[in-house]
Every structure is written in structure tokens, then in C-alpha cells.
């Protein structure tokens, strides 16, 4: 599989799935994994809404380096593929908040969810908007080696959620 083919696989997985798994760690290094519904801008910027009191949100506040995996859990055994991304995450604030909630709301509505506004993620609201920026993408090589990941050449342009 060439880098271009791996990029196409990664883009397809991101485009067709609704949830990603965030892998975070607290200040002591204790890991935590959380599935979250996501919206993306291109293939390197991912948004989700969470409580700042959630374990993954508290972890991001103290250690913004995370990992993301997006995969389809419904495929037959032995055919699964995922996109693996080291990333840096943060709670969105300031000028980026309006842009981010618009991206999140558009994808939410496209999947039958509710519209989201700034009022839903600031002030007295119990939820906040978060963003992760992927540093790179990889997929499984599918060469018979267990857990052999290879880089996926993926552009950051593309589908706007």
C-alpha cells in the first residue's frame, strides 16, 4: 500500500465515522481513554464538546499531548483499520470559539443532532468546546505483522465537517 493509498484510507475512515477515542494521561501519567463524538475541519483539526470536569478534560488541562484513534468497530474480524494520530489538545477560547462551534454544530446537525451555539459552551453552560490538532497520521500496514503502523500521507485540506 503506497502512502497515497494509506492517505485515502485515513481520509475515508475520518469521513465515515462519528466517534474518535481520545487517549489522555493525568499529571502522574495514568492513562485514560474516552470516546467522543467529533467534528473536523480538514483532516488535522478535530473538535468535541465535553464537561471540563470529565477526566479527559482535566487531563488535557494539565497534559495537552494526547493520542486519537478513529476506527469502525463494526467491520468483520481481521479487516479492521484505524487512523492513529498523536495530537495536542486544548479547550477552545477567544476568537476561535465561534469558528469551532460552527464547525461542530454543522456536523452535529448533518448527523441528526442538535444545533450548537456559543451559549452552549461558555458562561454558565456546563460544557466546553475542545480542539485537537493532529501532528501526523498512521494506519496499519496490513502486511501480516502485528500492529505495524505506517505513515499515511494525508492532506489537511478536504472535507469541512
Instruction: Examine the coordinates and then state which fold CATH places here, giving the name of the CATH topology.
Output: Pnp Oxidase, Chain A
Tally of structural domains: 1
Q: Percent helix among the residues?
A: 10-25%
How many β strands by DSSP? Answer: 9
Span of the ends, CA to CA: 27 Å
The portion of residues forming beta strands comes to 25-35%
Radius of gyration: 16 Å
Based on the model shown, name its key terms:
23% helix; 161 residues; 9 strands; 3 helices; single chain; 7-stranded antiparallel beta sheet; alpha+beta; disordered C terminus; Pnp Oxidase, Chain A; 33% strand; two-stranded antiparallel sheet
Report on this model:
With 161 residues, this protein is α+β, with helices and mostly antiparallel strands. The protein has a single domain (3-151), classed as Electron Transport, Fmn-binding Protein, Chain A (Pnp Oxidase, Chain A, Roll), CATH 2.30.110.10. The protein contains 3 helices and 9 strands, in the order H-E-E-E-E-H-E-E-H-E-E-E.
Topology, element by element:
Blueprint lengths: L2 H14 L2 E7 L5 E7 L1 E3 L3 E6 L4 H8 L2 E7 L10 E10 L4 H15 L17 E7 L3 E3 L8 E3 L10
Antiparallel strand pairs: 1-2, 1-5, 3-4, 4-7, 5-6, 6-7, 8-9
Short description:
With 161 residues, the protein is an alpha+beta fold.
Amino acid at each position: 500500500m503506497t502512502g497515497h493509498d494509506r492517505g485515502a484510507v485515513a481520509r475515508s475512515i475520518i469521513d465515515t465515522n462519528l466517534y474518535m477515542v481520545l487517549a489522555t494521561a493525568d499529571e502522574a501519567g495514568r492513562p485514560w481513554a474516552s470516546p467522543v463524538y467529533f467534528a473536523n475541519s480538514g483532516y488535522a483539526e478535530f473538535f468535541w464538546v465535553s464537561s471540563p470536569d470529565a477526566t479527559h478534560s482535566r487531563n488535557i488541562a494539565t497534559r495537552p499531548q494526547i493520542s486519537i484513534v478513529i476506527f469502525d468497530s463494526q467491520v468483520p474480524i481481521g479487516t479492521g483499520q484505524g487512523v492513529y494520530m498523536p495530537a495536542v489538545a486544548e479547550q477552545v477560547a477567544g476568537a476561535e470559539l465561534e469558528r469551532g462551534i460552527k464547525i461542530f454544530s454543522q456536523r452535529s446537525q448533518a448527523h441528526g443532532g442538535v444545533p450548537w451555539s456559543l451559549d452552549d459552551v461558555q458562561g454558565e453552560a456546563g460544557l466546553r468546546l475542545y480542539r485537537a490538532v493532529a501532528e501526523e497520521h498512521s494506519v496499519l500496514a496490513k502486511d501480516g505483522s502485528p500492529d505495524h503502523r505506517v505513515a499515511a500521507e494525508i492532506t489537511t485540506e478536504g472535507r469541512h465537517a
